[in-house]
Design brief:
Mean pLDDT: 81
Low-confidence stretches: 157-166
Radius of gyration: 18 Å
Strand content: under 5%
Structural class: mainly alpha
Number of domains: 1
Length: 166
Amino acid sequence: MFDRFSENAFKTLPKMFLFKSNTIYNFSKFLLILLFVYTGTSKLLGHDLFLSQISQIKFLKNIAQPISFLLPLVEIITSIFLAIDQMQRSGLWLAAFLLTIFTIYVAGMLLLKSSLPCTCGAVISSMSWKQHLWFNLFFMLLSWNALLHYYNPANKIISTNKKEVS
């Protein structure tokens, strides 16, 4: 499904929205890996607190127990996928999807003036909802930009190790 991503889409995107170098792309992947390892690990290490916090969310109350294990595991798996070249595409899609969902959730908290606790873990949970929204927007845009960079045909590495036919 994702292989059918239209290469023509890159012709219509303003050039400023795409990474210019693989160095920036790799640094972006590194930041995403750090983010997901940090948040996933802090949720697992503080599992009881995380479970308590997500149990306060009305629409998650009945499924809080499985979510409390699944979400941090998905975050850690996402970081592993981002680190493995062969799994990079899946990792980028997972990162973009998760960060989009998290950003929508934070925006909803701001719109509803909710006082629910942040379930992100440690340092990130000390942010205000507005700071959290900007933080999530940054990482969401970073992940989508990395995904666009991945699919941009101009960034494909062409192998020079061709086997000669004898």
